[in-house]
């Protein structure tokens, strides 16, 4: 059996789809299933059992012999939430409990960290485990992810195989429920569909022109490929970046969205809200040399190809991965 936490969410549900396609049917889906807005993400997927998030640890104790792997994808990911206690409970302490179960029963683990740990990128975007304590996340979400990464590395007792993946800007199908936290492509598609136009944040940094703020955008299917790679690889434990290694501009992204919709680009710019302006990232780019060095050699989908697939095969028909 393979456990997937955050199973009804954006990445977790896509991962289950891929596991099913690869022949894995004994999936234990863990989530807060009271959130009905995510229910459609699991429709049509083969799942052995749904386990409420709060009941997972008792379930693991009762079924430990049959657990082959844990993907801990679930987390509170809202970067606008500033109640530290929520992140302590769901991102830090819950993750510690999963880690401890993996140690106790020798279950391999892949968990989701985040590029939010890098803050404004003052120290670059290298997944060097010796520099984690120097990172300066911009919000409690990023703090919680970095806190757990540091804690994991400090543990004397570790699962025999474990990996933390620092997700960069992920986009793709199954994020319909995410509201304002959905990807810029999702919002661009809906804005263009409604108005034939798209508004982007103006640059308030003289080093960047309007629309040329840059992010490392990774298609969710590529991210899932890496998760599957580690499930089979089971060596070289540690913390890894997971982006494409190539930063692209928001303007590139929006033009790709217009093109995928077969519409003429019409982009205007609005001021970045004052309350987030001083914490706005102008550049993120994952250094992907570490994961390449252990044998992951699959190319990442280009922004243009990823946006086209997402828009034409999912958003246009409100389809799911």
UniProtKB/TrEMBL annotation:
Cofactor(s) required for function per UniProt:
NADP(+)
Q: What Enzyme Commission number does this protein have?
A: 5.1.3.20
What InterPro entries does the record point to?
A: Epimerase_deHydtase, Heptose_epim, NAD(P)-bd_dom_sf
How the cofactor binds, per note? Answer: Binds 1 NADP(+) per subunit.
Q: Which residues cross the membrane?
A: none
User: Which pathway does it take part in?
Assistant: Nucleotide-sugar biosynthesis; ADP-L-glycero-beta-D-manno-heptose biosynthesis; ADP-L-glycero-beta-D-manno-heptose from D-glycero-beta-D-manno-heptose 7-phosphate: step 4/4
On subunit structure and binding partners, the annotation says: Homopentamer.
Q: Which family does it belong to?
A: Belongs to the NAD(P)-dependent epimerase/dehydratase family. HldD subfamily.
**What protein name does the entry list?**
ADP-L-glycero-D-manno-heptose-6-epimerase
Q: Which organism is it from?
A: Dyadobacter luticola
Write the gene name.
rfaD
